[in-house]
Specification:
- Chains A, B, C, D, E, F: It comes from Virgibacillus litoralis.
- Chains A, B, C, D, E, F: This is Mn-containing catalase.
- Chains A, B, C, D, E, F: InterPro entries: Ferritin-like (IPR012347), Ferritin-like_SF (IPR009078), Mn_catalase (IPR007760), Mn_catalase_C (IPR027407), Mn_catalase_dom (IPR039377).
- Six copies of one chain form a homohexamer.
- The C terminus of chain A is likely disordered.
- With about 290 residues, chain A is mostly helical.
- Chain A has two domains: about 180 residues, Ferritin; about 70 residues, 2-Layer Sandwich (manganese catalase, domain 2, chain A).
- A two-stranded parallel ribbon of chain A has the order 2-3.
- Chains in contact: A-B, A-C, A-D, A-E, A-F, B-C, B-D, B-E, B-F, C-D, C-E, C-F, D-E, D-F, E-F.
- At the A-B interface, helix 4, helix 8, helix 9, strand 2 and helix 10 of A face helix 4, helix 8, helix 9, strand 2 and helix 10 of B.
């Protein structure tokens, strides 16, 4: 259950309206890596958590904080929109700066939301839940979280440098600092989990069941070998189970695929009879005697 | 530019048809973390790469390999669908096993694709490019890649254990091994980049511009303090710039938000006059004298 | 800002696992009218609210409650999934009931979320924010809210009657009761607003600017006049400004549309010259002398 | 079955081209509450109608009218696009007004549709059918319809005030008047249905099956009690079955959720053993002896 | 403007309910190539038409017919759903055939639409307008239409053969016949247009502006030359302007791409200095002296 | 399996940056008919191909070429973005041309992709796989391919004429030429297939099973008969099986639809009893005695 505190977690006070910037700021509200994404991702990971209570609690703490971040940015955007040009713009529109501003706004900020923030990104594309993941494996999910905080902080930094409004920058400096913490936090949690299991997700799959001869091979699928210079092509692997190998000319290991003609009820295009050799004995025949 | 080699990278030969399993296998073809995602993510990261050529080359090598993985799974699904029940099912449908199979299939595998794989996930939801990221910052993107390979390997392992078909398992054991390599690879590349910059993305944002007093604080937004037990709440931070701090009762630091009534052309609901104290001098007035 | 309370608002304890029902229950979690929708709709309406504080507070109170509903249903679904069939299903699959259950499950509940709830509806379609509205006009939005609670309660009732599990029914009986309250609440709030303005949204548009001769006409666009029997075709209108009129044979009042051939850079299909009479004097010519 | 009449229902004649306005006008064509939404919503409600014929007929009459509204707006947009800047813009682009216009256009109006309207909203987002509802319960659906006409009229009014073109305003004044009628119509139909059943949808669910002690409680989930001032917190409820009650400090009524560790085939993160007290006797044990 | 005729264009009377088939039949209602697609595609092409009136009229005639097809299938699906299993299924569910049926149904047909058709495809994915095209070039669009009718008839035929219900087959035989007509119709219209212009869309682009040395080359991007056997690799081209040529080993004609490091405000990953030769004189320098 | 060649298929070198044009060019990269669409469509058609090997090979050859086209356009867009305005734009923004450019850019090109191309269209809408089709019937799919190349070439031509940059035009002239070839190619392949089967897809459905009396009728669903003038209304049909017939006043051939009231568990709106005559003997009774 949740309670609402009327004060914002941190100030969200622009120095002046800026409806064009409001459109851009939507990216970190309702974009792929915006605050809605981490809010919903953490809440679902927490609610679905089947691991230790300390993880469930930690994840829900940060998830609850992210609702407050969504609240801050929403509030900020609504105030930035206070300056949207009014009706009967014909006079103003002869001023190219005003016209340019109108061109740069999201029209839905007037027509649909009436000077309110929308749960969309900076192109107006609606947020959807496929931006989130809750897999049931905490190491996998903490890597998703570290990625989300990395992409998110990168975007907020770019937005910080796209404005000179001291009020907007003040709020963004808070979000950037929290993202600093959250990247640190997920790195810490990842290290803790990796110490209890191996680095490869999932750590519980028996190694003998994977095709081990290709488990540490970097395969060069192009002419030229610049890709041989990296750490990924030399030295021990990070799971401590092998050594990286650089395969300059990887060979195909599989069959030339051949699909049986479709049965009549599919109404496909029947082959004219030029089948490849041995294809009358089908894949299935050879493999399993079906 | 690209060339096609007719042989598959590895065998894709099921032992027998299994159209219900074909539906499930779609998840790692066209799902959020399926092979289409890593294929497109790596190709776009490579094409957009503004870093060292060795990174561009490495990313495109693995992107090119992933096209081959899409090819393998597509080929496998098409063969698994060879056993889809034929037309005029009325007799067969009295057999509950056949009827159950029909219920478990994706109907589009017959109606739309005519026994072919579809670029969708296991619920039939189409793949879309918001599953991918290419941010222009390699450390951020390599974390995205490590996450994608972690989620992807987890899903393939679950699918491996959902079948006993030796042909399917053979192919999946190859994909699992490649995911082992690719997780190792991204860990290696991440470490290499972190050695050249700090662990926090982006590393180039001046620390004095963030709100440093909250950069290392874990905030407990719930009753109870199980979340205090983790590495994220104690000890030095991972960027080497501070120490984690556990804030048991985080305080709100921001204003009670107040939005100005909307102008007439918005046709909103006007307030009846019970404004909070001091709101006739608006946010903007107080902050910037506008 | 928000705080999390570890206890659920109400019990979410199934009597036994039921993974097929878990799939259905997703509808009221992540569907068009599920709890995620009202949660996000109310939160955004509250944060964007430019009306009286009592409305802002009221909307955020209910929005905060809805987060708790999302939490309850997520928790319930995760427990219903405890009974998902395990790996190596081949033996069990010969039992048609088990096979049927597998066919009726959402495969992502195993492959993607690892026995966790997903932010999707009962077909696996992801939640998206176009399910919500925050328009800046409270009367319009409260009608959206009344609709959402009406559709939502209807769906929960249907789900209640699709199970006999007493634990599931207990939780749903709570949600149904809250939906009873919430429908009542929005009816009350709508009445209050309608008393301060007219019933037609927006009430502030000057009536003389609309085409008043069609403001109260029910137009019959079919043969047969069953539609004449309703309240909408007789008596005073509900805004108190007119009387309903039944137009049995509505006439077209507009022009036969004609579009100018496209300019060359569009590379359209040029007309061969058989223009309708008078079209060389185009619409624009007649209207504005362009 | 349907017939087409070549005349428009009402005039759609702009006074001059305005491609930037054409982009905005798309909102009420293909947006969430545009004419395509009500057209498809009413048609599906009518075709699916299992209630009295007079309702089926009425719904299909208005659905048929809405096709004509889609036709009018499409025609209007195509004409507004006649003024899109031509190829070889380099000279013109030095004129900032022209450049601004180009920036404010939807580029697909040239590249994709060749100066035609598109079935999308004002950000270019395609219309989709999740904007509509046909639930099988007419009272629920008429509330959806009243909401759609309220949001729709609000948006058309905002668009009316964003232009001074007399031809555009003439068409919009017609649409606004029809929305006046349609709001009146749905209010009338709702009242008629509410007189035959209770106000709470669905009216047929036995009241004893809901958790009646919370059916009329307004719960205050925040500090401060501004929300106590509304009609929703005092007096008799609107279904005539109870009295509103204001709960200033709602208590959690549910369990602290605990999920069982996932089985091995899920490859989740196993708990380290610090289970909460009594959790070895799981939820299911307590409830149903499983 | 449109009128509704209460009779269906053709009978839609199933012989018995079949809710599992209802799910499948959704594909040709709300799928990628369902009747909603052709309905909306033709209506928008007609309304946007800038060519001869005979084309505009013809397109709108068929668009109007397609509304009737949507109506027929919707009506059929609603009746097929009459047999959906009722509440309190526990007894019935012990019958595996009933359980299988439940697994094969779309759960939204009960929970959301209350035994009504939904504007979605057979996986429950909502219809969206990106399925349609109206380009302003009739030859391009008629090819889109021919494709849509080809895919559509193929799907209806597969559905015809998936049932033995004589009432369903009767309706589908009508739709198949209309698709026969509509394929013929678009072939006829295409031929007519091709006689007035060249076969390549758009026919108005000056041939000297394209890179003519590759305008008729089939390029073999794989080992092996099976693709040399087709008509596309030999003989005169279909636009009468050249001869097909088979290029067994196509050479790359472009540069090795090199992107400039991003400016500081992007916060990308700076290259370490190992630039390829000559890259300090950038692309732009060489081309345009910028 | 695939190999990457580091050289582009053709040059992608703009003469100068142009971030506004970069936004437009996205249409033919990630739009409905962009290069990603044909790339994925051809690859899936090839991998799923159950027809002659020469078709499979041919389709995969062109699919492989399309990957190279995606690569070229991506590279071009990244370079066009080199000119995006830098941070701290306040000074520049006073220049209306700069401000206009900012308004015309896709903000995600800075915030999200850091001056890289995105897999989206010109409005920022993400590419999704429902843009593609692989049906199992080659004639149907080749018509889809011909349409895609027609729409694609039309869009590239429009983009060619929207710029004067000689480097951009050079690349586009290559793509236009390849689209010339590809339209020719699909026309050739279609003709080859039509010679082996009939022109109507699918050719294998028995003609006696369709409702032949409407297989060649053009139905006029409007007042006025302009649509009678086309080839589709006169002369022999293109499948050689009939003659086109113009039906000036098509009659309804179906029933007035009537749906049974929904069962109680649906909680619909019960009819008040005014049923149409004979409806107590339901459709099902009359048809099949069920």
């Amino acid at each position: 259950m949740f309670h609402h505190i009327k004060e914002l977690q941190y100030n969200a006070k622009p120095s002046k309206p800026d409806p064009v910037y409001a459109k851009k700021l939507q990216e970190v509200l309702g974009g792929q890596y915006g605050e809605m994404t981490v809010m919903m991702q953490y809440l679902f990971q927490g609610w679905n958590c089947r691991g230790d209570q300390k993880y469930k609690d930690m994840i829900l703490d940060i998830g609850t904080e992210e609702i407050a971040h969504v609240e801050m940015i929403t509030t900020m955007i609504a105030q930035l929109l206070d300056g949207a040009p009014a009706k009967e713009q014909d006079e103003a529109a002869k001023d190219p700066v005003v016209e340019a501003a109108l061109g740069g706004m999201n029209p839905q900020h007037i027509i649909v939301s009436g000077l309110g923030a929308t749960p969309t990104d900076s192109t107006g594309y609606p947020w959807n839940s496929r931006y989130t993941i809750s897999s049931g494996n905490l190491l996998a999910d903490f890597r998703a979280n570290l990625n989300a905080e990395s992409q998110g902080r990168l975007q907020v930094v770019r937005l910080y440098e796209s404005t000179t409004d001291p009020g907007v920058r003040d709020m963004l400096s808070f979000l950037i600092a929290r993202d600093t913490m959250h990247q640190n936090q997920w790195i810490a949690a990842i290290e803790e989990l990796e110490q209890n299991q191996k680095a490869i997700v999932p750590s519980t799959f028996p190694q003998e069941n994977e095709k081990q001869q290709v488990s540490y091979s970097f395969m060069n699928f192009s002419k030229g070998e610049e890709s041989a210079q990296g750490r990924w092509a030399n030295g021990p692997s990070y799971d401590g189970q092998g050594n990286f190998e650089y395969v300059a000319n990887p060979e195909a290991m599989g069959q030339v695929p051949f699909l049986k003609p479709s049965p009549a009820y599919i109404h496909g295009t029947p082959p004219t009879g030029n089948l490849p050799p041995n294809t009358n004995s089908s894949t299935f025949d050879k493999e399993a005697g079906t």
